[in-house]
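Quick one: structure for this chain?
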Amino acid sequence: MRAPRLRLGCFLPQGWRRDLPGGTEAGPFEAMVGMAVRAEQAGFGAVWVYDHLQAALPGDDSPVLDPMLALATVAWATSRVRLGAMCLALPRHHPVPLAHQLANLDVLSGGRLEVALGAGSDPEELRAFGLPVASLRERILAVGEAAELLRTCWGPDPIHFEGRYTVVDGARVLPKPLQVPAPPIWIAGGGERLTLWQVARHADGCSLFGPPERVARKLDILAEHCRQVGRPLHSVRVAVVLDCLVGATEAEADRMVDRFNRHGEDRARYRARRLVGTAEGCAQQLQRYLDLGVSEVCCHFPNALQSDAPERLAAAVQVEEPTPG
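Got it. Here's what it folds into:
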């Protein structure tokens, strides 16, 4: 059984999840770029990076690659696959210089950029680097304003914008993105009262996570927010972020669960929140998400550099062909 067509995305090894070879020489960048080339050749429609400053596990001294430099490097090495960070932690970035960086990336990539914004999932990381951390409510509201400001920056110059968090008076952001009217803007997160409300008002797409039952609830709530602002739900592109443990056999997939289940989570619960099984079995599991209206799956393969799991999943799923724009 083949799942209906969708766009598969692949997270690149970047170090945040201990997924790069050791050392601080060119090896990590070569591994990341090599995975991007593999993903494009396998038919993935997008490649994604994270936006973090240090590894996720305490005490882990793995190198973590900068997302903007990573995306620029990947843009040179690929020609069709779309690319972006899922997602940019807005507390790390001022929206106007960010608009300039992103416009440059869109031009550099030939109009292949996807922009995803988030409120920042790790306040302790921000504090460790001396960055101010507002309340979660303020960070979420700032994401919606930033989406509006990015589009303003990519429009006619000079830029005049007076928001709750940012005031711009006379800036000129050049070059402009190649994509017209603007690169797609995603908002990541499933907060039901504020985040999904911001999606309905400001975003081209939303990024969710969790088992199908959780995603279904989020989409019901998003539909209500969309109704309130007079927007059809189908105008919001829906992505789900999933860890993918793809084995040649079910027994191998079980062994991968034991290997990567570092926190000792109940096996059934662990499986319910991820794609686990053979490539064909994972493709069938995707059907439950597709039936909900999900059109993009952002896959993290914990063993991508040591296996052909990404290629096997792409071969088992009927995907959209990657296009430059």
